[in-house]
Design goal:
This protein is mainly alpha-helical. It has helices at about 20-50, 60-70, 75-85, 85-105, 115-135, 135-150, 155-180, 185-210, 220-230, 240-245, 250-280, 285-320, 325-345, 355-370, 370-385, 385-415, 430-450, and strands at about 415-420, 425-430. It has a two-stranded antiparallel ribbon.
Length: about 475
């Protein structure tokens, strides 16, 4: 009996579904990347204490990580286009796992607290190497999706991977609370556990993943035809056209757009856990209150799952219904940026009301993530066979924006930080004005993001001959 709306022609075989197991592996990788980064929001206190540094200086760690993460996006994207995502992702995971494990040694073996400022400088260098290692993960996930999914499923596939990433990012504060705050695990041991999970994933990936369906022993020819239907024929040279990529107006506009997301969003992952604990200290006096704050800290990323999934589905649905790829990629991210700006601005004036403050920031997570599926699908539309390089370029510039955003946010919050003594304990507390300034700034940046989408035309790839010939209809196999 035919299933999924597909009935093979007489004498032909039914396409296999290996691509969905590949998508599952890529989703797990996306989750692990966020686990190993979102832990910063919960671990920064004991981490800085181990180094003998005030917690307010932690923004420097984020800046070093983000700069390295940004600078090495293009080289690792290029590696994925030239050597394939299999080798590149294995290298990425093993490298970053090493530095996650080394981060767990902070203040003990290397670097030691008694080394003073030198210890912190060495630690910053370690975080630079961590960022260097994790760079390129998402561009190579994008390349793998381009290789393994037909055109009408790529928005969905990118939405699913970002949904998985946001899921783990949102659960990380809760997992940390269960393992460390309540469970009694040392923060160092938690980092070593996270590094071990990444290595275990790498072993499974090496066994199952292949760069293209034609290389996979479990994928049949019919599935390869479904995946490759409608892809442009490669008639040019094999080298990456760097000049065309870096001077292409679409690529430049795509990078401009992605700065907005990265500049504004990282507050939710890195600063929100500490903000909620500082702004609402009474909730942290019981295990139940701690778990609630941990859930609220991760909630923007958890609801972001819905934004990622919905954005990917809506962009593919709109294009399939109207045939208008240009606006199919634009309209939903523009709505998302506009609403995220409104929510940030509202939160700025309710910093003492947990329900409104957390609720608005949770909605920021949802509306911001409407752009994730469309933006990465747009990088695939524009880049096509150079999609990893184009995605890496977008993510590089975006993460440079994240580095600037973390720097500016850290400086603003530090400027509004005062010493407050509570129950005989002196603590650093950020005054409300710091959040008003930050959130107003984020809202203005989101407004520029809405306008930036008007400059992006996904119907114009960097190599014109990469446009799929109209005579090649897609093979009917939607799922």
């Amino acid at each position: 009996m035919p299933t999924n709306g597909y009935s093979p022609l007489p004498g032909t075989e039914r396409p296999t579904r290996v691509r969905f197991s590949i998508l599952g592996l890529l989703c797990l990788l996306a989750m692990i990347t966020y686990l190993d980064r979102a832990m910063y929001g919960s671990a920064k206190g004991p981490m800085m204490e181990a180094l003998g540094q005030p917690e307010k200086n932690f923004f420097l760690v984020l800046v070093f990580f983000q700069v390295a993460y940004a600078l090495f996006e293009i080289p690792t994207g290029w590696m994925g286009d030239i050597f394939g995502p299999r080798k590149t992702l294995i290298r990425i995971v093993l490298w970053w796992s090493l530095f996650v494990a080394l981060t767990g040694c902070a203040g003990t073996i290397f670097p030691r607290t008694e080394w003073g400022v030198a210890a912190f400088v060495i630690f910053l260098a370690m975080q630079f190497c961590f960022g260097m290692g994790e760079a390129g993960a998402f561009p190579n996930i994008s390349k793998a999706i381009y290789n393994w999914f037909p055109e009408n499923q790529r928005g969905f596939a990118k939405g699913v991977t970002w949904t998985a990433a946001r899921l783990m990012g949102g659960l990380t504060p809760f997992i940390w609370a269960l393992l460390v705050t309540i469970g009694g695990l040392e923060w160092r041991e938690a980092l070593w556990l996270f590094a071990g999970v990444a290595v275990a994933w790498c072993l499974v990936f090496m066994w199952w993943f292949r760069n293209v369906p034609e290389e996979h022993p479990a994928a049949n020819q019919a599935e390869a035809e479904v995946i490759n239907a409608g892809k442009g024929r490669h008639t040019g040279p094999d080298g990456v056209p760097w000049r065309k990529i870096f001077t292409n107006k679409n690529v430049l506009a795509l990078c401009l757009m992605y700065i907005v997301t990265n500049f504004n969003w990282y507050f939710l992952m890195y600063y929100l856990p500490g903000t909620l604990k500082a702004q609402f200290p009474d909730w942290g006096k019981t295990d139940g209150g701690l778990l609630l704050l941990a859930l609220l800290s991760g909630a923007p990323l958890l609801v972001g799952m819905g934004g990622c999934m919905l954005g990917g589905l809506l962009t593919d649905w709109y294009i399939s219904r109207t045939g208008d790829r240009k606006w199919g990629r634009r309209i939903f991210p523009m709505i998302g940026y506009g609403m995220a700006g409104v929510c940030y601005l509202t939160a700025a004036f309710f910093t003492h009301d947990l329900r409104v403050f957390a609720g608005c920031l949770i909605l920021v997570g949802f509306f911001n993530d409407l752009i994730m599926g469309p933006s990465w699908a747009t990088a695939q539309d524009i880049g096509r066979r150079y999609s990893a390089t184009v995605s890496g370029t977008m993510n590089m510039v975006g993460n440079l924006g994240a580095a600037v955003g973390n720097l500016v946010t850290g400086l603003i919050l530090a400027a509004y930080t005062v010493k407050v003594t509570t129950d005989g304990v002196e603590k650093d507390v950020v005054q409300n004005g710091g959040y008003v300034v930050c959130f107003t700034m984020y809202a203005i940046v989101y407004g520029h993001g809405v306008l930036s989408w008007l400059l992006i035309d996904t119907t114009k790839p960097i190599i014109p001959e990469d446009v799929a010939p109209p005579a090649d209809p897609p093979v009917e196999d939607p799922w």
